[in-house]
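Quick one, tokens below:
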């Protein structure tokens, strides 16, 4: 926001140099980025926060300066004569969309002479970066810079039936704006129309056909208040941003519309001549009155550590435009129409504190009523992080916004359930993720491009599904892992060993152990489209599916241009966090020795190890402490469809040393069961 130093001095007495004034404004929260000399004037470049639209004008900044310097604020004088002809004789205004335009005012000036603006007006606009167009257009820009209220002037004779209709646009309706570009509109947009067609985009830009030209003699002057979200949405959709839309979308002042209209009317009558018709058309839907806000001096001291006299607090807030009712040790304030940002006591505390000076605040630690607490499930997340880190994994963090094509490649969620963004920051990232795998594979790609060939990554994150369009989207907390490369490249003896399916399966089993859960179940699956057939499995806990793992499908690998096998897994981590933990049981250390017996069997490849282990455990042998698979062999000399498994059984009794006869009997029970259940052959 550019502010003229000399213009400010017309509104308030200033005894500071431009650079000293810039410092004072910065200290009260209006950061001045620079002070530039412009002829006899100085222009201050102020970086305003989005919650202070009241300062997007010279009068708004002058109000702040008057409060800081304790000087009176001068309002520009507004004088003009009205003719005997009422405005209602020549025009009318109908507002069909009051929610989008709560207030619309119109004045008519007839017999105007459109021409160049006087030098003082041209120089003032040029100093602030505004190009002079003609005297009428320049006056509307001047008043906008003075009061922060955008205005628009129509050529009254170019309006069909010389009347205004404020309405929503029709779908696929078109309008050519002052920039010469034609835009197609939707019913969500507000237009200012005449009896036939749209003549302006409300609060954004005027239409080409109804603008002020050298032949204009009769002017209809618009000053209105528009709904801020509507203006912002339309401005973004059309790709049109103007000084007017910048102010309206942040929130103009409902009450200033009529005042700014009168100010512009007076200047037009003075500089352009003409007859001001009697009266103003003012169609309005008044907003709710602001609620009173209490400020307690004790609360002020508690928040700032400073004392303030009640009279000084009253002076500051009154000068800023608030209505005050003071008591002995508190006051009640009502915010003016231009201060949308004042609603609670802390807002008033901030107003008083910034005017008194932030430099007077003392640096102290805030008091604490108690200790903090972890988020729900944080203990489980920390345990899993520590376990995976110990296994050599690194944590990745990716955005929740994803590319729709990539996400659909790595998920089984139907397209109708995916959550699309109505106004994405990046058009290539237009959906909320349904899986963490897309982000993890992008992280893997970056690592590979930087020459890191051996990668282990994991990520916690929320995924989103919108099954019921009448309800809010569902958020799932997932945990995903990806591995590729050498198992241990730091050891030359094992450097050739590559990470594989079972490394990832072991990591998932470690996760279950770190959460103190019962072991996870893994079952082969072939119909997950992005996983390699025959090298994938679903993960369950009891009868409940909680995830999947496997090798990335060759087609997906080719799309990412991976030149080495990649293995991925994804778990519904929220489900695991809610699962009941195993009961902790303790027993004395065993006193008696263990006995190991190995078994080598020839068995069908279709039988997986989990089935074998579960079958042996179902025998309920109390002396059987552990079952371990320690070798797998598949060679050409074995029968087709068969492979050899070697497993080790560990036996121990709690009350005695087992005899050979007892161990042989138990061993025979196991081998007999394997033969009868799976057709296994002993080797």
């Amino acid at each position: 926001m550019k502010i003229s130093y000399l213009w400010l001095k017309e509104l308030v007495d200033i005894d500071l140099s431009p650079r000293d004034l810039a410092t004072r404004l910065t200290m009260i929260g209006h950061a001045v980025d620079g002070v530039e000399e412009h002829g006899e004037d100085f222009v201050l470049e102020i970086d305003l926060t989005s919650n202070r639209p009241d300062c997007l004008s010279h009068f708004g900044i002058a109000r702040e300066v008057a409060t800081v310097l304790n000087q009176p604020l001068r309002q520009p004088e507004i004088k003009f004569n009205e003719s005997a002809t009422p405005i209602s004789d020549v025009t009318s205004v109908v507002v069909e969309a009051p929610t989008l335009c709560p207030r619309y005012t119109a004045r008519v000036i007839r017999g105007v002479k459109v021409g160049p603006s006087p030098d003082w007006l041209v120089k003032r606009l040029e100093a602030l970066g505004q190009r002079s167009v003609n005297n009428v257009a320049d006056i509307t820009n001047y008043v906008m810079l003075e009061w922060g209220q955008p205005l628009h002037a129509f050529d009254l004779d170019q309006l069909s039936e010389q009347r205004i209709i404020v309405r929503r646009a029709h779908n696929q309706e078109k309008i050519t704006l002052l920039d010469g570009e034609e835009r197609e509109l939707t019913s969500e947009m507000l237009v200012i129309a005449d009896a036939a067609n749209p003549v302006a985009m409300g609060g954004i830009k005027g239409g080409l056909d109804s603008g002020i030209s050298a032949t204009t003699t009769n002017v209809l002057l618009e000053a209105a208040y528009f709904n801020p979200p509507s203006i912002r949405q339309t401005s973004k959709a059309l790709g049109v941003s103007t000084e007017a839309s910048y102010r309206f979308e942040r929130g103009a002042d409902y009450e200033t519309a009529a005042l700014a209209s009168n100010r512009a009317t007076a200047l037009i009558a003075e500089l352009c001549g003409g007859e001001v018709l009697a009266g103003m058309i003012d169609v309005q839907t008044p907003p709710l009155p602001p609620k009173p806000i209490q400020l307690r001096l004790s609360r002020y001291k508690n928040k700032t550590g400073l004392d303030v006299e009640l009279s000084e607090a009253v002076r500051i807030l009154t000068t800023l435009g608030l209505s005050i009712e003071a008591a002995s040790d508190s006051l009640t304030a009502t915010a003016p129409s231009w201060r949308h940002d004042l609603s609670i006591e802390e807002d008033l505390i901030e107003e008083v504190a910034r005017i008194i000076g932030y430099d007077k605040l003392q640096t102290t630690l805030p008091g604490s009523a108690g200790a903090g607490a972890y988020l729900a499930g944080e203990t489980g997340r920390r345990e899993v992080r520590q376990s995976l880190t110990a296994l050599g994994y690194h944590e990745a963090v990716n955005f929740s916004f994803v590319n729709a094509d990539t996400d659909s490649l790595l998920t089984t969620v139907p397209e109708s359930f995916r959550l699309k963004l109505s106004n994405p920051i990046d058009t290539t990232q237009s959906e909320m993720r349904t899986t963490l795998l897309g982000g993890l594979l992008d992280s893997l790609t970056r690592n590979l491009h930087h020459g890191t060939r051996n990668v282990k990554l994991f990520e916690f994150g929320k995924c989103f599904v919108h099954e019921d369009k009448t309800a809010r989207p569902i958020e799932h907390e997932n945990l995903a892992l990806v591995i590729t490369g050498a198992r241990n490249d730091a050891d030359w003896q094992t450097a050739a060993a590559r990470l594989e399916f079972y490394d990832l399966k072991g990591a998932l089993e470690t996760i279950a152990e770190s959460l103190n859960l019962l072991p996870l179940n893994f079952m082969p699956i072939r119909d997950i489209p992005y996983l390699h057939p025959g090298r994938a499995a679903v993960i369950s806990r009891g009868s409940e599916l909680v995830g999947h793992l496997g090798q990335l499908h060759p087609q997906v690998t080719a799309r990412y241009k991976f030149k080495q096998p990649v293995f991925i897994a994804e778990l519904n981590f929220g489900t695991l966090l809610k699962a009941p933990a195993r009961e902790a049981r303790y027993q004395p250390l065993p006193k008696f020795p263990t006995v190991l017996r190995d078994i080598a069997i020839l068995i069908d490849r279709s039988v997986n190890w989990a089935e074998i282990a579960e079958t042996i455990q179902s025998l309920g042998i109390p002396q059987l402490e552990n079952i371990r698979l320690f070798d797998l062999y598949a060679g050409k000399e074995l029968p087709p469809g068969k492979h050899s498994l070697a497993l080790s059984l560990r036996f121990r009794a709690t009350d005695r040393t087992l005899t050979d006869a007892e161990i042989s009997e138990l061993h025979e029970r196991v081998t007999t069961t394997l033969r009868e259940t799976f057709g296994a052959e002993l080797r």
